[in-house]
Design brief:
Blueprint lengths: L18 H6 L9 H14 L8 E2 L1 H8 L3 H14 L2 E3 L5 E3 L4 H25 L2 H12 L1 H8 L4 H18 L2 H10 L1 H11 L9 H12 L4 H22 L3
Antiparallel strand pairs: 1-3, 2-3
Helix pairs in contact: 2-4, 3-4, 5-8, 5-10, 5-12, 6-8, 6-11, 7-8, 8-9, 8-10, 10-12, 11-12
């Protein structure tokens, strides 16, 4: 009989030789506070199903596995429980909860509406220099994909950095920060759902460059159509790899 999954079933990519080694592997633009790093790493493992539903999340084992102190692990588990990605069982332990199909549908509905708004605002406000910066971030996805794969935590963070840069163009600084803190996580989860398979036959960088070109075109109609297409492609990719 196969034993139940435990928190030590983390993928090898989430076990650096040291905590500093893992940080050094990330693109500099997506360096984050240690607490956020641990939270996002574990959330990525759950969303990508590297930590399967039913896996027990044991604080001490996770701290040892990730070679960090128990304090950021405890904080991450609290946040993941609040997110609904962990549930406390009758004996008090925490277990991973998978996203239901209806929840995945809702994530992409929210993303579609948000993408349309961002496209409209960014198209009106972006400068040539702004879009060159975003293109450079998109181009930076290539070495990340080659080294780690599109299902990796590293790619997830680099991909999130692209969309965060577009948010900063679309909205005033305070609003962009608020949205990044409160809503960009949904965009990140949507990306993790879409890019959960390293064998996905999708031209990821080319798709994002096409989106940026449309946003930079000056045509709101072209920008919003490209945003809609980008979101549909992402949702189709997520559905293709979603468990039945």
């Amino acid at each position: 009989m196969t034993p139940p999954a435990t928190s030590t079933d983390l993928p090898a990519s989430t076990e650096p030789d040291s905590a500093s080694d893992h940080f050094s592997s990330l693109p500099q633009v997506v360096m984050v506070h240690a607490y956020d790093h641990v939270y996002r790493l574990l959330r990525h493992a759950i969303v990508s199903r590297s930590l399967a539903p039913g896996t027990r999340a044991i604080e001490a084992a996770l701290a040892e596995r990730l070679r960090v102190s128990r304090t950021p692990i405890r904080d991450a588990l609290r946040r993941l429980e609040s997110d609904g990605l962990l549930i406390r069982t009758g004996n008090g332990s925490l277990e991973v909860v998978g996203l239901a199909p209806s929840e995945i549908d809702d994530i992409f509905r929210i993303r579609a509406e948000l993408d349309r708004l961002v496209a409209r605002m960014a198209c009106k406000r972006g400068t040539a220099d702004d879009w060159e910066e975003v293109r450079s971030r998109v181009q930076a996805l290539t070495p990340v994909i080659e080294r780690f794969g599109i299902s990796s935590y590293e790619f997830s963070q680099a991909h999130e950095a692209v969309h965060a840069a577009i948010y900063r163009i679309a909205f005033a600084p305070v609003v962009a920060r608020m949205l990044s803190e409160r809503l960009l996580g949904l965009v990140e989860i949507a990306g993790e759902l879409s890019y959960a398979d390293d064998g996905l036959d999708e031209p990821v960088v080319a798709q994002h460059l096409e989106l940026v070109d449309a946003l930079a075109s000056g045509s709101v109609k072209v920008a919003m159509a490209a945003a809609d297409r980008h979101c549909r492609e992402a949702e189709a990719a997520a559905q293709a790899v979603a468990p039945s």
